[in-house]
Design brief:
With 155 residues, this protein is mainly beta. It has one domain: ADP-ribosylation fold. Helix content is 6%, strand content 47%. The chain has 2 helices and 9 strands; from the N terminus they run E-E-E-H-E-E-E-E-H-E-E. The strands form 3 sheets. It has a 4-stranded antiparallel sheet, with no helix packed on it. A hairpin with a 3-residue loop joins strand 8 and strand 9. The radius of gyration is 26 Å and the shape is elongated. The two termini are 40 Å apart.
């Protein structure tokens, strides 16, 4: 059964860790002698993640300098796995992902990642009354106003 996985690289599909392995759409990459499973998910092999958000754990650079790929591997090529990545002996690069695959309008990544300033104001008012019977009688009435504002810098 084929696994659909995600891989993050530097520019031109070059692996972030070794700086030489290049991921190109349509190509199959293989490692002849990956480290044994006892080495766990970190070791010699090809690394990918089942969830795209897990790939972010392994990026130590500006996301604008990264490329993301959808890759596929057979379950039989899994050497080891943990909760955030899978180490493989072979995988096939299916396609390069773009901003739109992440729900970001094309050309807007800088706006999503960049610093910004936001401000908002709100005003609310409410009134309510009620009546209830129980072991005794009671009546309640209340009203209130509220106002708040805030601002902040965000990344």
């Amino acid at each position: 059964m084929a696994l659909s996985l995600y891989k993050v690289t530097g520019p031109n599909g070059v692996a972030l860790y070794d700086g030489t392995t290049q991921y190109r759409v349509g190509e199959t990459l293989s490692i002849v002698d990956p480290d044994p499973a006892e080495t766990c998910a970190c070791g010699r092999g090809l690394h990918a993640s089942e969830r795209i958000t897990d790939t972010l754990r392994y990026i130590e650079r500006d996301l604008r300098q990264c490329e993301f790929f959808l890759v596929e591997a057979e379950e039989s090529d899994v050497v080891a796995r943990d909760t955030t990545k899978i180490r493989l002996r072979s995988l096939t690069v299916r396609r390069k992902l773009s901003e739109i695959d992440f729900g970001i309008r094309r050309g807007r990544l800088d706006q999503v990642l960049g610093e910004g300033y936001g401000e908002g104001y709100g005003y609310g008012e409410g009134y309510g009354d009620g009546y209830g019977d129980g072991s005794g009688d009671g009546y309640g009435d209340g009203s209130g106003d509220g106002y708040g504002d805030g601002s902040g810098d965000g990344r």
